[in-house]
Amino acid sequence: MNARTKYLPLFPLSIVVFPGEKLNLHIFEPRYQQLVMDCINEEKTFGIPTFLENNVGMYGTEIELLEVEKKYDNGEMDIRTRGLEIFKINQFDKMAPGRLYAGGEVEYVDNKYDEDIITKLKIKEYLKKLYDELGITKLYLDLPEDFKSYDIGHQLGLSTDQEYTLLQLFSEQERQEAILQHLQQVLPVVLETERLKERVRLNGHFKNLTPPNF
């Protein structure tokens, strides 16, 4: 194993976790209660690979356990975590040696944060239009000035498959291009949907129409 490879406890879930993302989880299965306790006792991280179409995806994110918010009498726990680095699974074990949970040898990917400022400004412009149209302007106002693609990854209306594709882009410029393309496709659909809703609302109202002169 090289310095960029390690063996991680794995917790497959049907979600995508981006680097830097804060994630709160309720742990109820005994095998994952064991995983969390092992991470606490041995000060280890664990991995969340994305589970899609009944398969454990090849890519996932290393997770740091920040704190156990609450412990229940039956062993269940509420935990706070944060995403660290993206990894690729080289070897997956349904059960880590001597444990109830899965594990695997993972290799960390080289991830570049080489943003393009022009693309970023276009993304902001489209986001404002989208959020205004959806009535969630506060989401735009709360956006940090120096936001990265991962900061808005869950606020774009992407499917889990699309978020997983975004996770596999290891350059910020590539991620920006993918996000901009998505916004350029989805905004006209949202605008047309809003126009359709307005037409439906107006149907049945008394109409004050000026007839044409001919």
Automatic annotation (TrEMBL):
Gene3D superfamilies: LON domain-like
Chain ranges of the Lon N-terminal domain: 7-185
Xref: InterPro entries: Lon_prtase_N, Lon_prtase_N_sf, PUA-like_sf
Signal peptide positions (record): none
Highest taxon of the lineage: Bacteria
Protein name: Peptidase
